[in-house]
Amino acid sequence: MPEQIKIGIINVSDRASAGVYEDIPGQSAKEILSDYLLNPVAFEYAVIPDEQARIEAQLKQMADDDGCCLVITTGGTGPALRDVTPEATEAVSEKLMPGFGELMRATSLQYVPTAILSRQTAGIRGSCLIVNLPGKPKAIRECLEAVFPAVPYCIDLIGGPYLESNTQHIVCFRPKSK
Amino acid sequence: MPEQIKIGIINVSDRASAGVYEDIPGQSAKEILSDYLLNPVAFEYAVIPDEQARIEAQLKQMADDDGCCLVITTGGTGPALRDVTPEATEAVSEKLMPGFGELMRATSLQYVPTAILSRQTAGIRGSCLIVNLPGKPKAIRECLEAVFPAVPYCIDLIGGPYLESNTQHIVCFRPKSK
Amino acid sequence: MPEQIKIGIINVSDRASAGVYEDIPGQSAKEILSDYLLNPVAFEYAVIPDEQARIEAQLKQMADDDGCCLVITTGGTGPALRDVTPEATEAVSEKLMPGFGELMRATSLQYVPTAILSRQTAGIRGSCLIVNLPGKPKAIRECLEAVFPAVPYCIDLIGGPYLESNTQHIVCFRPKSK
Known about the structure:
Three copies of one chain form a homotrimer. Chain A is of the alpha/beta class. Chain A has one domain: Molybdenum Cofactor Biosythetic Enzyme, Chain A (3-Layer(aba) Sandwich). The first copy, chain A, has seven helices and six strands, in the order βααβαβαβαββαα. Chain A has helices at residues 14-17, 24-36, 52-65, 85-92, 98-109, 137-147, 151-157; strands spanning 5-12, 41-48, 70-74, 95-96, 122-125, 128-133. In chain A, strands 2-1-3-6-5-4 form a six-stranded mixed sheet, with helices on both faces. The two termini of chain A are 25 Å apart. The relative contact order of chain A is 0.18. Chains in contact: A-B, A-C, B-C. Chains A and B meet through helix 5 of A and strand 4, helix 5 and helix 7 of B.
């Protein structure tokens, strides 16, 4: 039986946090991750405005205090003045993982040429992997599908729990030996 | 009738600025952009040496004082000691747009393996998008063709004017709604 | 007759430096480079633990004191706490070359989805090009094959020696004129 894990989901959106929009991106990310994983997952959940200090504080809480091995953000990765999710992610990460952003942009480029406007990245804080996703559910799915196969092994390498994927939904990869 | 816009073009080149070479890169960028856009364009234009302080000052003037919504640089993106255009761009940008450099290098790689030597990037300063292009006219065209489809929407998102493209030359993309 | 050149190879690995493992990555990189180059090569060689200060000191010695035009590192590019080769490379480089990491990750992605976990990069220090490679011999070969075609021209541009490649093993590229 796979061990229980904790995953944080942060919807970064001025309008969703003000209640103007429903939190569809966060719910979408939660459903996809539930499909992907055989581990029982306790989700930590937040909807916050596009303010860098707030995003940083939320990332730290989920990584350090709540013990999440994975934190997903949605939204706030574009070129607009209020888009600061990547800056917050960089500020709290000990290591940046440029390959995540590169692959997500390359994947989204197969659908829309404006994919290059996304500045999404990923980083490591302690034993937690933080991944920025876009704000639209369709793009969230495309990006998670692209990068998730590397997530369980990444979490192994940073000393997190052992994630087991549901191969009916996603095929993950672990090299045979180190 | 599309509104008039201002675009800055900076040819960064020790030799062109010393009059040794004609400014072919700058003229080439200007022609391509004139083909791409239905808006009447007032071009600001400069040919300057590969000196970081000079490039930064020129970028600031075009973005802040001249009111350009787009500034294109050509040249100075390689590994040589005098190549400092990306450093100047990073220094004056509030946000960096890594997807532009990634896509331009991936595009140029289809033609030459030395495309990976280009360090070109893009960034946002206020309501102005700055994009580094290579120095050779053929590569300028290839790179602009690759990234321009995302430029009008990017300028929308940073509060700039509404760019209309000439679909006979380039097809740009704006998502239907946010 | 091609001129003699110096190349540094640094295997960054706690276990190899402690003698637990043989230095297979370093030997592998050496063999591949010997195949690729017609120049007689004097290799500088080091096996050191995953400590940033040690890696930085070794990179500086090979670039500044030993006169290497190319330094290859193997290992230490992942997300784990001890993986700090990219940080050391960035710290000693005057310019970073993001295209190398992008292309190596894109290449490795054709083989394993965990390629996005590699943070490998490249940089310029004086007249020396530093390139991070992964730690596994198979991945070392795949990555070198991808980026080496641009290496001789890069070394031209930074004022290093003239590298001549063995076209039976690798085809390098130099643009016809500047």
